[in-house]
Amino acid sequence: MRDFIPVNKPLLDGNEKKYLLECIESGWISSEGPFVKELEQKFAARVGRKHGVAVCNGTAAIDVSVEALGIGAGDEVIMPTFTIISCINQIVRNGAVPVLVDSDPVTWNMDVAQIESRISRRTKAIMIVHIFGLPVDVDPVLDIARRYGLRVIEDAAEMHGQSYKGRPCGSFGDLSTFSFYPNKHVTTGEGGMILTDDDDLAETCRSLRNLCFQPGNRFVHERLGWNFRMTNMQAALGLAQLERLDYFVGRKRAMGARYTELLKDVAALRLPAGNTDYADNIYWVYGVLLEQKSEQERRRLMQRLHEAGMETRPFFFPMHQQPVFRQRGMFQGECYPIAEGMYRTGFYLPSGLALEDEEMTYIASELKRLLA
Ligand SMILES: *Cc1c(COP(=O)(O)O)cnc(C)c1O
C-alpha cells in the first residue's frame, strides 16, 4: 500500500540541519540570536526593500501592520472577501470597518475594478492579498491609492519569489507581509516578515512586535504591543530555505504545469490560469473548481479522495459569510457571487515541495476515475 499523501510536505534538504545545529552549539536560540537580523536583511534585499521585521507568524505580521498604520475606530479598509481570516482580524479588533470586494473569476484575486466604488470619506487603506499563485493586478490599485491618498498593506504570504511585471511581490505595500508557514515557498516552521522602505514604520513595527519595550526605559510603556518575536532557530531554517528560493519557485511552476497537463482534458474541472499578461503562476497551491457542482458534491469528492489516500483542502470561506462576523451584524445583505462560488466548488490538491511526480500522476488518475 502506498503512503497517505498529505496536502503539504515541505522540503528541508539544504542547509537547514547545519544552521539549526549552529543554534544549539552556540546557545543562541532566542530572538536575540544573529540569524534573525541576517534573515531580515537577506529577505528584504531579495525583495528590494529597505527594512525587514521578522515576527512569529504571518498573521502577526498583518496584525502589526494594521496597528502600525494607526487603523482604528471608524476607519475603513478595502480588502477581498476571498481570503484567510488573518487579513481581517486586527481590523475588526481595532474597531475599523472591513469593506469587501469580490474576486476576479480568472485570477481568483480581488477584482480591482470594484475598488474605486467602495471608497468613502472614511477609507484609510487598501489591503492587497495575492491569492494562490497569481498576483493581484497591482498597478491600478497603486494608482487609486495615490489618487485618494490611501495606505496600502500587501499580504504576500503566498508570493515568495513571484513578481508582477518584473517587480517583486512584497515590494508594493507601505507595509508588505509574508508568512513562513510550512506550506509557503519559504518556511521557518512558524514565522513571518514585514517589509517596508519607511524608517519610521519599520521602527514602529519592531517596537510593536517586542511589547513596546522602550530603549533606555525598558519597562515603561507608551503603547500596547505584542510578543511576536521570531526565534534564532526559526531564522536558521529561513536562511537555509531562502538560499533555495529560486529552485523552489522553478519546482512549483513545473509541478503546476504537470498537474495541468495531467488534468487538462477533464471537462468537470476548471484549472488555474497558468499566466496573465503580468505574471506566470507560481502555484502556491494547485486549486481546482468543479464545474456546475454543489458544495455537497465537492465535499463528497474530497472524502473519496481521502479514501483513495490523499489529503485535499477546501478554498477559503469568504469573510462576508463567516459566522463570527454575521453574529456581530456585519456584512448584512452583502453578496459576492464569484467568491461564494469558489468556496462551494473549489479545493486544492497536494501541493507541497516534497511531493513526487509519481504521486502527482496517481492523484490525477484517482481524480479522473472519481469524476468519470
Ligand atoms: C498563510 C497565510 C497567512 C497567515 O500566515 P500564518 O503564518 O499561517 O499566520 C496570511 N495570509 C495569507 C494569504 C496566507 O496564505
Short description:
Helices cover 36% and strands 15% of the residues.
Q: Which keywords apply here?
A:
372 residues; alpha/beta; 7-stranded mixed sheet; 4-stranded antiparallel sheet; 12 helices; 13 strands; binds pyridoxal-5'-phosphate
Describe the structure.
- The chain is an alpha/beta fold and 372 residues long.
- The chain has helices spanning 16-26, 34-47, 58-68, 89-93, 138-148, 199-209, 232-242, 245-263, 295-307, 323-326, 337-345, 357-371, and strands at 51-55, 76-80, 97-101, 123-129, 151-155, 163-164, 167-168, 175-179, 192-196, 269-270, 286-290, 313-314, 346-349.
- Strands 1-9-8-5-4-2-3 form a seven-stranded mixed sheet, with helices on both faces.
- The chain is globular, with a radius of gyration of 21 Å.
- The model has no long low-confidence stretch (mean pLDDT 97).
Strand order of the largest sheet: 1-9-8-5-4-2-3
Q: Give the strand content.
A: 5-15%
Largest sheet: 7 strands, mixed
Bound ligands, each once: pyridoxal-5'-phosphate
Spell out the helices and strands N to C. HHEHEHEEHEEEEEHHHEEHEHHEH
The mean pLDDT is 97
Helix content: 25-40%
* Alpha-carbon Rg, integer: 21 Å
Shape: globular
Task: Describe the secondary structure blueprint for this structure.
Blueprint: H1 16-26, H2 34-47, E1 51-55, H3 58-68, E2 76-80, H4 89-93, E3 97-101, E4 123-129, H5 138-148, E5 151-155, E6 163-164, E7 167-168, E8 175-179, E9 192-196, H6 199-209, H7 232-242, H8 245-263, E10 269-270, E11 286-290, H9 295-307, E12 313-314, H10 323-326, H11 337-345, E13 346-349, H12 357-371
Bound molecules: pyridoxal-5'-phosphate.
The site of pyridoxal-5'-phosphate has 14 residues, from helix 3.
